[in-house]
Amino acid sequence: MLKEVEAFRHRPIPEDMAWVYLDGFFLKVLREGIGVEREAVYVALGVTPGGQRQVLGFWLLPTESATAWEEVLVSPIGLA
User: Which superkingdom is the protein from (predicted)?
Assistant: First the structure.
């Protein structure tokens, strides 16, 4: 499964995307041996001119910050 996730995360953005929405939210994550922690989930959603929506990327990072958003924007899917 990890190979499929990595392939998804490193594919190019389709050129027919009219809009890209970026959002972040917090999620409780259960870590083995650590317990439950709150982490930030970042999502990039693309919308075609016809209104079809597609998840372009997602990231699980420790917190929401300017540095974390920079990591999302310069990620391999090429949002920057």
Answer: Bacteria
Contact between 39 and 29 under an 8 Å Cβ cutoff? The reply is yes
DSSP the chain: -HHHHHHHHTSPPPTT-SEEEEEEEEEEEEETTTEEEEEEEEEEEEE-TT--EEEEEEEEESS-SHHHHHHHHTSTT---
Q: Tell me which amino acid residue 54 is.
A: Q
Amino acid present at 44: A
Q: Could you tell me the pLDDT band of residue 15, with boundaries at 50, 70 and 90?
A: confident
- Mean residue pLDDT across the chain: 86
* Rg of the chain in Å (alpha carbons): 14
pTM: 0.75
Task: Write out the two tokens for 53.
Answer: 């929506």
